[in-house]
Amino acid sequence: MIVVMSPKATEEEITHVVDKIKGLGLTPHVEKGEVRTVIAVIGNVAMLREHSPEAWPGVENVVSIMKPYKLVSREFQMHDTIIDVKGVKIGGKQVHVMAGPCSVETREGLIAVAKAVKASGATILRGGAFKPRTSPYAFQGLGEEGLKYLADASEATGLPIVTELMDPRDIDIICKYADIIQIGARNMQNFRLLQEVGKTDKPIVLKRGLSATILDLLMSAEYIASEGNRKIILCERGIRTFETATRNTMDISAAPVLKQLTHLPVIIDPSHGVGKWDLVAPMSKASIAAGADGLIIEVHQSPEDALCDGPQSLKPTKFDVLMKELKKVAEAVGRSM
Ligand code: PEP
Ligand code: MN
């Protein structure tokens, strides 16, 4: 249920409504817009109806949200959420590209790739220090050492960093280094992990699970938002289907569908979406044309030597060419890059 306050409602009236909602044992989430304040009410909202909230001072209207997700819905917030990461505004007119290696391997290699992707126009550096590998025998990431290299690369380039958190036990160490916390596809429904990052004030990239529907993804975002953190960037990264020609089936429709259903920014990861470097460029262009707010792309100095996801990683020279092409696509659809 959403309580829509009148544009003329005073601060006292808003506080009064919030207190009344809390007094009924319900949870209010206040959203102060430019024109008016709306209050989402979570809990047994049937009880709220019985107390005629329409008659409370300053209340203009009371609307039911029939969807199971509330705080992340377009009904709750009409305008797009713009997330500011050290001055990089994700979800606005400008399309942002996050780029870097799948996993952090060496300090020198990371700094070199960070400088290259920055020169090409990337605005966020990606790199995993804790890697979710299918095999327990595969390279698992450098852990804290990798986070330190990310910090060094960030200092050398000024690029904010996005890196994956896999386990609530690592949350403090990740928060110390990361500007954006990535929740990987395999953890999209790790609800305890979602609740923990929901208690932080870090922006979150929430990747779509391998077999998750759009509704599943939005419910996971709601888990984070319900703990207080609304700085969530949704990420389509391909799903499992019967198709085997590509690593995953990249669902480009996720971008426009999500933009209708939610106010949160939406980015696409074509690298994991298709799993082949030579398909990354066309899928990146299609993503921006379809309305994505950004991309996350794997770039490695020497993909053939990469410890993880080499076959889908672009060389810096290829990435540079792609960025020039993407700028034109962005401009063609009324965005900038
Ligand atoms: C990654 O970004 O390197 C990664 C492991 O992604 P996903 O969780 O989408 O597989
Ligand atoms: Mn990867």
Describe the structure.
This protein is an alpha/beta fold and 337 residues long. It folds into 2 domains: 2-63, Alpha-Beta Plaits (2-Layer Sandwich); 83-332, TIM Barrel. It is built from 11 helices and 14 strands. It has helices at 11-23, 46-50, 107-120, 144-157, 171-177, 191-198, 214-226, 254-261, 270-274, 277-289, 316-332; strands spanning 2-5, 27-32, 37-42, 59-63, 83-85, 88-90, 96-100, 124-126, 161-164, 180-183, 204-207, 232-236, 266-268, 294-298. The strands form 3 sheets. It has an 8-stranded parallel barrel with strand order 7-8-9-10-11-12-13-14, surrounded by 6 helices. Strand 10 (180-183), helix 6 and strand 11 form a beta-alpha-beta unit. The chain is elongated, with a radius of gyration of 21 Å. The model has no long low-confidence stretch (mean pLDDT 96). The structure holds phosphoenolpyruvate (PEP) and manganese (II) ion. The site of phosphoenolpyruvate (PEP) has 10 residues, from loops.
